Amino acid sequence: MVINQESEVFKSITTLGKYVGNTPLYEIQHLSPKPKVKIYAKMEWMQFGGSVKTRPAYQIIKAALESGELGTGKTLLDASSGNTGLAYATICARLGIPVTICLPENASWERKKLLKGLGVNIVYTSKFGSSDESEAKAHEMYNNEPDKYFLANQYNNENNWKAHYEGTGPEIFEELGDSITHFMTGLGTTGSFTGISKYLKERDPSIQTIGLQPDGALHGLEGWKDMETAKVPGIYDTSLVDAIKHVDTYDAYDMLKETAKKEGILLSPSSAANLKGAIDLANEIEEGVIVTLFPDNAEKYSEIIKSLF
Ligand SMILES: Cc1ncc(COP(=O)(O)O)c(C=O)c1O
């Protein structure tokens, strides 16, 4: 059954659209190593839900309401170790849609509390199985009860990268145009890398797009996947990858501390890792404009912040 577009839930998601995206593009002031290399980052926590994942979550939920897959009593189900779960939860709390999230049991207490506070039903998976095991659990639950759930399936849902292709990419290009020489960001579901790179390359094929990876399977960069060892997301478009660069977790933590002191921003580990990747690249080139993302800030990482300061 397709839901009536005049219904309250439909009006509510449409109104919510004005709080999604349109985040500020921050120019790195003091950490850029060369005067002729500019580094910019989208401050993605400055939107409803507090992270980059609000964009895909919103698009996935809106499309499912439009197609009638959601909004008629079904529960939204997905695997997430963090921000996507919180984004689904904030949007669905407002819409009155129930949410079930499969989460590795070693997720931080803050995530668990926030999800619980937002009314999410959490299904824990083993801490040894990472997000791949949570994903498998979500698929198993959906296969057992397909009438009960809408499986949002962020790793394979085209609306994930499309949210960035239609939103983040155009926002970046509108501000910087063809002055951009490089775009780079960490690979998780790869939605942000795929959607933004595709849009920027269509506008200017000379823009180099670089995927960032952790220095190994065991890392502390929440939101990143090590593509060598993890299950590769279905939406990952490797034809958009001009290069892959690696960032060490401890270098990202050092960057987090430095950014706080010199730029006055408290970043999350993956945001700091993106900036570290951009600064490493800036050291390799003579001039250019490098764009990256700050997926979220330090707010949800009190255990890491406690150990660093
Ligand atoms: C903090 C953080 N950084 C980076 C990413 C990676 O973004 P994407 O899933 O678009 O590849 C995520 C995704 O969940 C994230 O939560």
Structural notes for this entry:
The protein has ten helices and ten strands. The protein has two domains: 8-47 and 161-308, Rossmann fold (3-Layer(aba) Sandwich); 54-151, Rossmann fold. It has helices at residues 8-16, 54-67, 83-95, 109-117, 130-144, 158-176, 191-203, 249-263, 269-284, 302-308; strands at 25-27, 37-43, 75-79, 99-104, 121-125, 149-151, 182-186, 208-214, 243-247, 288-294. It has 309 residues and is an alpha/beta fold. The longest helix is centred in the middle third of the chain and has 19 residues, at 158-176. The strands form two sheets. A six-stranded mixed sheet has the order 1-2-10-7-8-9. It has a four-stranded parallel sheet with strand order 5-4-3-6, sandwiched between helices. It starts with 7 loop residues before the first helix and ends with a helix. Helix 2 (54-67) crosses helix 3 (83-95), helix 2 (54-67) packs across helix 6 (158-176) and helix 6 (158-176) packs across helix 7 (191-203). Pyridoxal-5'-phosphate (PLP) binds at residues 51, 53, 82-84, 186-193, 222-224, 268, 270, 295-296. Residues 51, 53, 82-84, 186-193, 222-224, 268, 270, 295-296 line the site of pyridoxal-5'-phosphate (PLP). It holds the Pfam family PALP. One of its GO terms (biological process) is cysteine biosynthetic process from serine. GO terms for molecular function: transferase activity, transferring alkyl or aryl (other than methyl) groups.
Shape verdict: globular
Number of separate strands = 10
Helical percentage:
40-55%
For the record, the CATH class of the largest domain is Alpha Beta
Instruction: Let me know the average pLDDT.
Output: 94
Q: What is the CATH topology descriptor of the largest domain?
A: Rossmann fold
Radius of gyration: 19 Å
Helical stretch count? 10
Second-tier CATH architecture of the largest domain: 3-Layer(aba) Sandwich
In terms of DSSP E residues, the strand content is 15-25%
Derived structural class: alpha/beta
Distance between the termini: 53 Å
Q: What count of domains describes the coordinates? A: 2
The largest beta-sheet arranges its strands as 1-2-10-7-8-9
Distinct ligands, ions and cofactors found in the model:
pyridoxal-5'-phosphate
Spell out the helices and strands N to C.
HEEHEHEHEHEHEHEEHHEH
The major pleated sheet works out as: 6 strands, mixed
